[in-house]
Amino acid sequence: MKYILKIQDKEAGSIRISGGKGASLSRLTQRFPEKVPDGFIITTEFFKYYIQPAVIHVQDDIKSAVAGLTLPADAVKLIQSAYEDLGENISVAVRSSATAEDLPDASFAGQQDTFLNVSGFQAVTKAVINCFASLYNQRAVSYRAKNGFDESEVQMAVVVQKMVVAKAAGVMFTADPITSDRFTTAIEAVEGLGEELVSGRKTPVTWTVKGGTAKKRNGAESCLTEAQVTALSSIGKKIEKEFGSPQDIEWCFDGQRFYIVQSRAITTLFPCPSSPDGFKRCFISVGHLQMMTDTMLPLGMSFWKLMSETVNITEIGGRPYMEITHNLNSPAGKALVRQKLSNSDELMNHAFHQVLERKDYIKSIPKGQKSEFAIPKYVIKCIIAGLKIYRKNNPAIIDGYNRRMEAIIQKTRNELAGRSGKAAIDYMINDMENLMKSLFDPDGFGPLMVTFFLTKPIDKAGKLLLGKEHISVDVSKSVKGNITSEMGFSVSRIADAARDYPEVLKYLETAGDKFRIEDLKRQQGGEDAAKAFEEFFSRYGMRCPGEIDIAKPRFAEAPGKILPTVLADVRLPKGHAERRLLQGQRESEEAGKALVLAAKKKWGARKARKLAKQLSFYRNFLGLRESPKYYWMKRYWEYKQAIIRESEKLVEKGRLRNVEDVFYLSLPELAGLFSGEWKPDYIKIDAMRADYERYASLTPPRLIFSDGEVVEGEYKRKVPNGALPGLAVSGGVAEGRARVILDIAEAGKIEKGDILVTKFTDPSWTPAFISVSGLVTEVGGMATHGAVITREYGLPAVVGVTDATKQIMDGDRIRVNGNLGYVEFLELRKEALQ
């Protein structure tokens, strides 16, 4: 047994002996001996022989028990001898190195302790003991539990290295951890020791290096020159090549030479797409186009692929992507992508155009089939029907459309009730065609298409006649028939029914996931609130955040999720939602009248009548904007209930472990399971569950190549210094406290006047809009859900703000400029957060 090894010993390259950090440094020393400070490793054998036996029976506070150990004389002598071999009374760094640390899939960065500038063998010995003790600190134990490590198998080594008298130090990521671009090296540097950066005592200067070009991201003065940054990046790429994966590297600089004091794999990069033939292939995020960038479980992805037959969907990091490689060298293919992106995501569109400028790459693309954004075959019928409906301009047709859609849902319910097992899945697969057809119902989608066409002439008239940009925003406030806007008012009715009853409010505040309408009825005054909840779940129970993934829990399945939104509304005055609705109607009517009057004065009566009809039709039918998706989700809810019913039968028979396992199966696998032809592979399912938990924390790029390069788009317009640019989708300016919310379950934090900051919104977020004064999202476009609803509610909104939920902190006071498209910081977290 070897208790201490020199850092350059080949034996020290084993994680089992030296822990993750020690093994990595040993390997670096063998490959780059001049780059790694000399030192030694106190191995896991030392830990097992001298440390573990002394605390094996300790049940509580193991860390204190280890820290209080007195090592036997022979152990102290080993440490003293190794330390003195480095030089006389020199300063060293003493670092923990656990076997569950600096691994390819779990870095454990910062979980155990490090001690710098330690001198004298007694101080070194004490630091070593404290490093061993840090294996048992609460954050390390919790991190290991979260990542599924067996405590009994985790061992600890300690690395002792000569200190470098650093003029500068920091960290280097050989792939950009923010964008996941493998072609960009990100370097953070501070003067002096790197500990100043890690502890947060100094703000680093950040550099990026791509294609040999170094650029500063922030910081006025740098402790490194551009040439030094480029040289350091080159060292990083050599280390990356040695380890075979992107690295998170700690470095220091003594004014003459760079030293490497740690290197571990970056575990938070978005996965690379695959390329069967090795050619560099280009992919765009479908999730950004659909405004749902969360992970989509395999069952949800399977449904999505069925609905996207004209688009070749590829799953990357639990998200849907589409390959556009062969569109890039096809005039028709480029036009298809350009048209789609220009209407959906400005940043992705700019990234796409950057790729188009790579002439040599585009010339090298081999022949292949381009991805199609095929126009659904039902659209022509919709256009014809829409024009006919425009001539009559009779909104009564909407009632017929809604009745027909409800009848289709009832038919789906009846059909599934009469099927079991594989037959139920077969029905869903075959029903996809009918689902797509219903989304493009001529009487529903037809007039909606006309409203889309009318937006441009209405805005043009507003500009010419009144000098006002985007007047369509004003005339679209509080339109009739928007079923998603009505969901917000439905929540307000619940709040109005609950507001005056203390027992009801107490129950709503404490029920959480155990909320039941039956329990609510038992509270004094709870009958009216219960009735309002029943009405809400009857109409909107099938909705939820990320609802295009059928596996996501619906409000009907997790009713407690809507409670924070109700409680946020309770803090507002009774009837506020209805007052906002009426105010929006008045403002819309006034805007329309002013526009028509101006047209009559300048253009004459005939043109004014034409414009008046356009405005009337626009308001009569724009509310249909949210209806197709509403009925789509109602259809999904019928599918999901049938899947759960059949899964519960298998659980009862012992053929399935639990219902949630089916969400990690594809539709063909589910059909095989229900028919008895296929048995669930729980090892595979559990591995997938772990993968998806990891994917959930990753940020999906808008455009990524199969070799890991990420191309980022930029907004080309100027914004005030320090402001965050985005896309203005709803006019006005709002100032208030930022409420950064990643889950609608946190909506209870919202107070009147707050500005909601989140990654994206879908219809399930609508109730939260009732309580806020503005909206900021990371994803979105002019026609997306958040844009439409904020315009109707008269809320300023800026979407597509890169990393908004990271750059804006909860509690910052911000200004949202929905006219020009940016977010300004007023004060940072001045107010204490509740």
From TrEMBL:
It holds the Pfam family PPDK_N. InterPro entries: ATP_grasp_subdomain_1, PEP-util_enz_mobile_dom, PEP_Utilizing_Enz, Phosphohistidine_dom_sf, PPDK_AMP/ATP-bd. Keywords: Pyruvate. It comes from the Bacteria. GO terms for molecular function: ATP binding; kinase activity. Residues 18-212, 217-268 form the Pyruvate phosphate dikinase AMP/ATP-binding domain. Residues 750-821 form the PEP-utilising enzyme mobile domain. The keyword Electron transport does not apply. This is Pyruvate phosphate dikinase PEP/pyruvate-binding protein.
